[in-house]
């Protein structure tokens, strides 16, 4: 009779197996003392922004209330909502960090925080203040719990007391320093500069994390000696998240701008979404595919005309692979990133240009047909990009596509929440033209990311394959011992 281990398919066993735990001959952490101190500094720096964002706000309550024309009690409500969100989000981010790594979640959290602070510095209405304070909290409140997770990754139980003590210096410096700093900034520069200060300091922390924080999650890198081979996956998820968030901003602005600029009624404001939606529907059909590339259906019986299938076959022929064989399985060495993303690069450029054109068309109050036609262009290209990103995400995660999709949703929903919260304050501050010029450049960021993904993808897949082979050998050894 088959054992429980043997009843699980081999490919699933390979994915369920955790990284090898350190043996007696391997240290608990492969990071050097100097690296540990640097990691501790970065995590403490990031963790300081959660309480700092709360305490630095207090001296500005009265000036903000006076500037926005509301009562002090209503501004105090922004403190309450900040605390409520800070009690919920850390559990979500902590769980995500355990699954996909500390570093990606740090980058996501600090990115949301950065965008929310820009919105807070620019906003001029109480609802925007309330919403953006919640987004600010959602971005930064999880950094303290993430820091404790990092400490558990790199420090033995006997070391953790001193590590936690050093890490806590960052968050504990906020209560005495935050109000003093907030009072000085509000008195000398005005309350908006409190948030500009957080933009600058939080942006600096984000850059430092991007450049110099290694992955520590033991489920991914073990004691630090296993390379995090998920770099290509994070680039893809980030690119998809940026694209989704920027599209959400374009769509969120449509009805309000057309009501304000063109005097549309509510029914008309609903109908103007049709060009984007219909174009996206057509694009999904043109760019998508009916048959999975692993299908054994012969090419003659496969529906033709799907662009990604065409690109896949063309790349296969160009690199010496038989297209029919390549459709049955992902061949070793096949440049799948190139096959999926080569056309997406041009799609990104068209979407960026279209977004900029849309903003200026609305601001210049040209005929409504022009921005609506541009919306159709954006919808067609955006849908094509999502098909390409989603297909590659499935290609790279054949046995864990649901987990990959869940990770994608976390990143894109968080980025979209932050960017849409900052949307109206930016429009109010600089106008629709410059606002969507900014979002056009946000779209354009995906271009270099795509090039980077195509470059690093094959090497990352090779490293993943090596690591999976090592885990399979370990599982085989354990299975032999069981028998």
Automatic annotation (TrEMBL):
InterPro entries: MFS (IPR011701), MFS_dom (IPR020846), MFS_trans_sf (IPR036259). GO terms for molecular function: transmembrane transporter activity. Residues 1-26 are annotated as: Disordered. Its main location: membrane. It is found in: Membrane. Residues 1-14 have a biased composition (Basic and acidic residues). Residues 39-461 form the Major facilitator superfamily (MFS) profile domain. The keyword Transmembrane applies. One of its GO terms (cellular component) is plasma membrane. Keywords: Membrane, Transmembrane, Transmembrane helix, Transport. SUPFAM superfamilies: MFS general substrate transporter (SSF103473). Signal peptide: none annotated. The chain crosses the membrane at residues 38-61, 73-93, 105-122, 128-151, 163-187, 193-213, 234-259, 271-288, 344-362, 368-389, 410-427, 433-454. The keyword Transmembrane applies. It is a multi-pass membrane protein. It holds the Pfam family MFS_1. PANTHER family: MAJOR FACILITATOR SUPERFAMILY, QUINIDINE RESISTANCE PROTEIN 1-RELATED. This is Major facilitator superfamily (MFS) profile domain-containing protein. It comes from Xylaria multiplex.
